[in-house]
Amino acid sequence: MDDKNQNILKNNFLSRGCSASPRIYDKNENIYKHGCCKLDSFDWLADIPKAEGADVFPYAEIRFKNSRLEFCQMTEDKELAIGDIVAVEGSPGHDIGIVSLTGEAARLQMKKKNTGARSEELKKIYRRARVSDIEKWINAVDKEEHAKYKTREEARKLNLQMKINDVEYQGDSTKATFYYTAEERVDFRELIKVLADEFKVRIEMRQIGVRQEASRLGGIGSCGRELCCSTWMTKFKSVSTSSARQQQLSLNPQKLAGQCGKLKCCLNFEGAMYEDALSEFPDSKVVLKTKKGDAIHQKNDVFKRLVWYSYAEERSDIMAIPLDKVKKIISDNEKGILPATLENFSFVKDKKVDFENAADQDDLKRFDK
Question: Tens of pLDDT along 118-159?
């Protein structure tokens, strides 16, 4: 195997949580390392000793490729440790996975995901992987990259409007799952026939969203770090433009959209903080009354706790007033007391600039004028 194929094989195992490609005639005890893969599970109860006489929790969290995690039932061997390579019940045959959580941490995780209610439907862990299982697993993973590119070619020949993102072979090479994205419904029955004749395995097509596609492919965000969806996020919450408005961000699709083409998930991260901070600010409809004239709200500066106002007749001149002084002016207005001017309370005064033709600002020749 050349260096290029070895790197591809190593990357495919890295997406399964392996720090390197497993060896056939090796115990592979240190093949699974925390932090070497995305969506890693940390057992924060590992240092707490188990109570005497307590029964071993009969379920474990098994990690497969990318973000696929499943809870499986232990059968014979109930002393599995994190990092063990195990053979798990498949449909049909068996699959190979890595134990990522056991014991009390697995029980709490099952409770969080409400999996215990249907524990009788969970797959079974047959055994620790044997030498023959590891050999089949390596051969199956080695086929994934070729299958992905071959499927893209066949889909292009059939003029199917779909994008093949990832391929996952079952550990015994009897089944292959193809993950794809498509804007419309795709009739891939002919494609399945072609793939079944080509690869001689059971074919399963599974459609995923653009956010799941980005989490599988990975990448670097505008913040300079790896995408959150490919490192630690497991659930995708809906993101709306109201979060951007609440944070007073410019509604520019190019800046607010992530690599998936949807609104960035990080818009929700600080939403609760902004909502709590803005609860102290007055309503934007409140008008400040002065002897010089009425002042209307322009914008808020949450971090500096400043509120920007301008006179109704002079909207180009805006003034930043501390929040506590704004509240005092509103309280005085309710009592019928009118301050002379807002300039006496303003922290800074600025000139509001309005671009009449904002489209020309992107023209490269504008510097030549």
Answer: 667 788 999 888 889 989 998 999 999 999 999 999 999 999
Residues 294, 286: contact at Cβ < 8 Å?
no
Ordered structural domains, the chain, with CATH: 3-44+55-139 (no CATH), 143-210 (3.30.300), 237-279 (no CATH), 281-351 (no CATH)
Query: For all residues of the chain together, what is the average pLDDT?
Result: 83
Tell me the per-residue pLDDT of 171-194, one tens digit each, with 9 for 90 and over: 998 999 999 999 888 999 999 999
Helix ranges, the chain (H): 3-14, 103-112, 131-142, 144-157, 189-199, 210-217, 228-231, 241-246, 253-256, 271-278, 323-334
Q: How far apart are CA 73 and CA 88, in angstroms?
A: 9
- CA-angle at 328, arms to 322 and 329, nearest 5°: 90
CB 96, CB 31: distance < 8 Å = no
Predicted TM-score (pTM) of the model is: 0.75
Please name which of 252, 265, 159 lies closest in space to residue 211, comparing C-alpha atoms: 265
pLDDT digits (tens, 9 = 90+) for 60-71: 999 898 888 889
Q: Which residues in the chain belong to E strands, given as ranges?
A: 59-63, 69-74, 85-89, 94-101, 124-128, 163-169, 175-181, 202-207, 288-289, 294-301, 306-311, 314-322, 348-351
